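## tool: complex_structure
## caller: assistant
## args:
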Amino acid sequence: MIPVAPAGNVAATVSEPGYPKPARGNDREARSRMGYTGAEALWECLVREGVDILWAYPGGAALPLFDALAKYPQIHHVLVRHEQAAAHAADGYARATGKVGVCVATSGPGATNLVTGIATAMMDSVPMVAVTAQVASSVIGSDAFQEINITGITLPITKHNYLVREGLDLVGILREAFFLARTGRPGPVLVDIPKDVLLAPCEFHYPERVARLGYRPVVRSAPYQIQRAAQVIAESTRPVVLAGHGVHIARAWGELQRFAERINAPVVSTLLGLSALPADHPLCLGMAGMHGVAWANLAVQHADLLIALGMRMDDRFTGSLQHFAPQIRVVHVDIDPAEIGKRVPAFLPMVGDVRLVLEALQAQAPALDHGEWLSRIDAWRERHPLRIPGQGPLPPQEVVRALHRATSGTALVVSDVGQHQMWVAQHYRFARLNSFFTSGGLGTMGYSLPAAIGVQAGHPGEPVWVVVGDGSFQMNMQELATIAQERLPVKILIMNNGFLGMVRQWQELFHEARYIGTPISGPDFVRLASSFGIPGRQVCAVSDLTDAFAEAQQTDGPYLMDCRVDAAENVYPMVQPGTSNADFLEDPREDAAP
Amino acid sequence: MRHVLVALMQDEPGLLARMGNLFARRGYNVESFTAGSSEVPGLTRVTIVVEGPSTALDQVAKQFRKLIGVVKVGDVTADGDQLAHEMLLVKVGVSARTRQEVVSLADLFQARIVDVSSTTLMLEATGQPDKLAKLLEVLRPFGIKEQARTGIVSMSRGAKVLNQRPGAASDRKYLAD
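## result:
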């Protein structure tokens, strides 16, 4: 079913940066033979794609697949405790390594449980291949036991998906699935394989190249665009560089730093763009947007030029479009043309891969000095610093700062969604490139614990910290079992305030403090962890933090810290919906200190 | 506003569903939709007429172009060179007294009589949608028992062809003014 380009149409070859050198599978004699079942052919494909780990959950329709896995010891299979976690783990792995993450589930409920994880990956452009088993072809469409139309369900949340109708198509589809997942704007691809296809003999010929008619991501901007951009940059007196997730996806960290230094422009980032430039770099301003730091938002609002790199002008970044940076010219660089001009008009649209565009731009852009502009931003930074409350036994912001001190900012931090996520974004000064992983676009609570399983798998032996609220933690806390089983040294920091904090904050600010549905109880997290064999401790005061972090870091395996933080804390600064990013609310308390 | 999109896509299951999903999600009502083989084996040509906000159409067309398997999308709404034709089948009630009158009307519109019964005539007509609408208007007094229209297929006059540069994306398109 791999479409052959018809005469008259030349399908361009698309470069596939992440494509590994084809590894040899178990087939030592011939490249093309009939000796495999569909299930074996699947694993052969994965081996050739360089997959050595995946997250999976078995089931009836998936049985042949798991049976064949026994012959492939080079693939490490991690049994998660819920399929959603398999998708998040594959997602975390992909973000941390740049490789395609793989998750596997059975038909019906196994497949539907992947949905939230697939949608999370879609919104954040994460390369992933999800393999689902399907009921036998002969009963598809009859509402058979554990049958669900998963290609229909995932149609709007995958970059592409396939139902393999014949064994003949299987290998070509898998090759194409990996190709699509990792090229262009990455995203999740789902392959649904009926049980009979898994069992039947399957011809195996692994195509080295994929040519898909009409699929030709533009990776280089036209030279006239580059020249034009260089000119626009030279004309600007108040430029701001904006780093989005695309900087990580394109692995353009070095190019970003050199470019920003060359034109001497400050760099702000989106939530997912954090850690694209080390936080202590003099040009790094941190995150802008709804809970962005004041000086970053003021810089964007007053800038005359925004060089947006690999981002999609999300509403959490722009705030009200009506008030967004009125005098700005936007140079918008993105590999997906559909993102350019979608929400904010582009003065100069540049379709391309961020790394290649920056490389070309850096060669053409003039060396500049924006000292005056930078000192104006510094003045904003002095006037509107991030504040930490002076009272209360355990301010959550202080917990994040202590984590930063304990890890020197070099940990791989996986955060969940909510207040704690914003505090991490504001107060953890990322010293390491590509070290922050969180669900940005979809805002999936429950993401962090399973995603950390994947992040740790991608970086064995390196410090991985989960920062999670008590609400988010309870959404996927079953994955403690997976962490314990895999002996992953993941450190878990629960910001426990007995509330769904971000929603509580909105109730306080916009719904007259009617706290409906947001107070949340939970188990004794330390005892819960200990029942999985994971040590931990409760932290109730700032004075306990140093000890607790030392203990966590000295522990070989996983560790859990249950931090009883102040429930009344709100995230500031905050831009209220519908207002300008320059009109942020600051912490109203007098005793709050920088 | 009414928009006309013409597209070439690979002939594979699910692609039409993907396309429909894009329009539905953004509140477009698909007025007509035709699909059939193109000059290239394996490629389906579709013509879509949608009703919806113009501001969002550009975005829909971009998302449409992004679908894997879609080779080419052209927005021909404003293209005066486009020929847009559709076909109509209509069953008209007739009596011995009115039959001849309907036959001569059909003649005027260059419609063909494709079926005759003692109480009905079936007419087949092709042409621009407003011509077919006119025909229906004059037939209405006789009693229209049943009608079926295909929706338009569209093609540019002259030497220009849709499939000159398959799938190519141009930066210039996305310039703000």
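## assistant note: The interface with chain B takes residues 1, 3-4, 6-12, 151-152, 155-156, 159-161, 163, 165, 180, 212-216, 218, 221-222, 225, 330, 336-338, 340-342, 345-351 of chain A (CB under 8 Å). Chain A is about 35% helix and 15% strand. Handing back to user.
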